[in-house]
Design brief:
Blueprint: E1 4-7, H1 12-22, E2 28-31, H2 47-62, E3 66-75, H3 99-109, E4 117-127, E5 136-146, E6 162-164, E7 169-170, H4 176-182, H5 184-201
Parallel strand pairs: 1-2, 1-3
Antiparallel strand pairs: 3-4, 4-5, 5-6, 6-7
Cofactor: Mg(2+)
GO molecular function, one term: XTP diphosphatase activity
Family: Belongs to the HAM1 NTPase family.
């Protein structure tokens, strides 16, 4: 029975969200930093390839099953960019890396852009070992529109500018339980919980 899975991320926001969603499985998510595991390289141009690289790296270094998330913002008017470069988006425009600067850079680049459609995408990949031939892959997508200024104080990343028409609010305006139910990471995590339960925890 799997009791611990390494989370191949040092992002406190991701850890908190995913720990809450994995609690029903009775599995403890251990951030890789607790095990002294450094960041993996992310040389690929798709979320799934980068997430797989991170999961394999963590499993190899930590000798435990591992799960990794690669997520980003895909803006229709920018042909799906910044995509896998989302975390470093602000640095393309002379700002330091960081959520607030990413939001600032995005709003500046979208000045005068009428098509505000965008999607937050989360791809989770889990492996039992570094050589696992059957990685579990879950993808969640939250489609919405980029606002013209930040709204709301909850969440992180692009949450203050990601307006979800079906909810009438940005992610940063929502209570965490509502956000988790509708977010890209929440959708991917629920898929992954089901995949792990089915593939790794059931007995024939």
């Amino acid at each position: 029975m799997i009791q611990k899975i390494i989370l191949a991320s040092n992002n406190a926001g991701k850890l908190a969200e995913l720990q809450a969603m994995f609690a029903p499985l009775g599995i403890e998510l251990v951030p890789q930093s607790q095990l002294g595991i450094g960041e993996a390289e992310e040389p690929h141009r798709t979320f799934v390839e980068n997430a797989l690289a991170k999961a394999r790296h963590a499993a190899r270094e930590g000798h435990l099953p591992a799960i990794a998330d690669d997520a980003g913002l895909c803006v229709d008017a920018f042909d799906g960019q910044p995509g896998v470069d989302t975390a470093y988006y602000a640095t393309q425009f002379g700002y330091e890396k960081g959520d607030a600067n990413n939001v600032r850079a995005l709003l500046e680049q979208m000045q005068g852009v009428a098509d505000r459609r965008a999607a937050l995408v989360s791809t989770l990949v889990a492996v039992r070992t570094p050589e696992d031939p059957e990685p579990l892959i879950a993808v969640g997508r939250a489609a919405g529109e980029i606002t013209r200024e930040p709204v709301g104080a909850n969440g992180f990343g692009f949450d203050p500018v990601m307006f979800i028409p079906a909810l009438g609010k940005t992610f940063a305006q929502l209570p965490s339980e509502v956000k988790n139910a509708n977010s890209h990471r929440g959708k991917a995590a629920r898929q992954m919980v089901d995949l792990i339960r089915e593939a790794w925890m059931t007995t024939p």
